[in-house]
Write a structure and sequence with these properties.
It contains twelve helices and eleven strands. With 329 residues, the chain is an alpha/beta fold. Bound molecules: adenosine monophosphate (AMP) and manganese (II) ion (2 copies).
Length: 329
């Protein structure tokens, strides 16, 4: 059955007992992270509280660029005696990146939907609202806003729907178990979120270069293990030429996953001479979060990522080794 996780009372108490909040998300934010942060800020402001959104950035994805101006540095005058931190869409506080050290002194709560949560509960009963079955963090924020006794306003509905659509690949990763997600989506739409506008804001606005780069990556795709694993890469020189802005991972993965027999997709991107990021996707049974975790990364069962020292050949070899036991059967 779909998730029936309810909002923990300790999260509600955490929010009700404080009037100043810093809402943080993961570095290199995506639509779910930004949507969660901004919708939660809006709700807290409506409750008469002070709230700011902070992120290590960078705001690389085209669909979130317009929100970057909402984000501020961690307020210098924030006092640990009257300010609390809420971390969203992060499997651990270290995923907040460069702002992690500044957040550490504050009492913090975490709201997340990743497979592994490493947030230490030890610090002053830090409350955790985690549901790894939730397809987006914005869905948890939706539940939280409702549990706080608020009706969604249009802006919040749009932000929550935006995050839900980005993390579910516009609902295509959902299954027959997710009727409740569509019920929540219906509420968001009734409150003013538009599927058409949201779809265009996520899938439109891409550059011609992003399609040229995608063509390059597609053209060098290799099939391994009888076609069960598809692996390709973006070179350092492409990264230098096209930059982060030209990455269109969701479309690229969608095309590769549509290939007959594919069960998993690996895209390696070389960002420095000796450093790569790796994006992992699977269609169904393969748990790519587990593979990512063995290299210090993380994510979800069907979508995960990691960074690794080494060049493309080295990282590719490591990835192939990781899939040997899983795909030879
Ligand atoms: P991506 O392939 O970058 O779209 O990431 C897919 C999923 O994996 C997202 O949920 C990310 O939060 C997660 N992820 C990506 N990179 C990492 C990392 N280095 N550590 C932990 N989780 C990651
Ligand atoms: Mn995210
Ligand atoms: Mn998410």
């Amino acid at each position: 059955m779909a998730s029936i996780v309810t909002v923990p009372q300790e999260i509600l108490d955490f929010i009700n007992s404080c009037s100043k909040f810093i809402i943080a998300g993961h570095k290199e934010p995506d639509g779910d992270c930004v949507g969660s942060q901004l919708a939660l800020r809006s709700a807290l402001l409506r409750m008469g509280k002070e709230a700011v959104v902070c992120s290590a950035g960078p705001f690389k994805k085209t669909e979130i660029k317009k929100y970057s101006t909402e984000f501020v540095p961690i307020p210098k005058d924030a006092d640990i005696s009257d300010t609390k931190v809420i971390i969203v869409d992060c499997s651990g506080r270290e995923r907040t990146g460069e702002i992690d050290d500044s957040l550490k002194p504050f009492q913090s709560a975490i709201i997340d939907h990743h497979a592994a949560v490493t947030h230490p509960r030890s610090t002053a009963l830090a409350p955790v609202f985690v549901d790894s079955d939730s397809p987006s963090c914005t869905l948890l924020i939706y539940k939280l806003i409702t549990a706080l006794g608020l009706q969604l306003i249009k802006k919040e509905a749009e932000l929550l729907f935006f995050g839900l659509c980005t993390d579910t690949g516009f609902f295509r990763h959902l299954t027959e178990k997710n009727a409740d997600v569509f019920e929540a989506a219906a509420v968001m739409i009734r409150c003013g979120a538009s599927p058409k506008i949201t779809f265009n804001s996520i899938n439109g606005g891409k550059s011609l270069n992003s399609k040229i780069l995608m063509g390059n990556i597609l053209s060098r795709t290799e099939a391994h293990f009888g076609g069960k694993l598809l692996i390709s890469y973006e070179t350092l020189s492409e990264f230098t030429t096209y930059g982060f802005e030209s990455r269109d991972s969701d479309s690229l993965n969608q095309i590769l996953m549509s290939i007959h027999g594919a069960e998993a997709v690996v895209i390696i991107r070389q960002e420095l001479a000796d450093n790569c990021t790796v994006s992992l996707r699977s269609i169904d049974k393969i748990n790519v979060a587990k593979i990512a975790a063995t290299f210090g990364g993380g994510g979800h069962k069907n979508a995960a990522g990691l960074t690794m020292k080494g060049d493309i050949q080295f990282v590719k070899q490591k990835m192939l080794e990781s899939f040997v036991n899983i795909l030879i059967y």
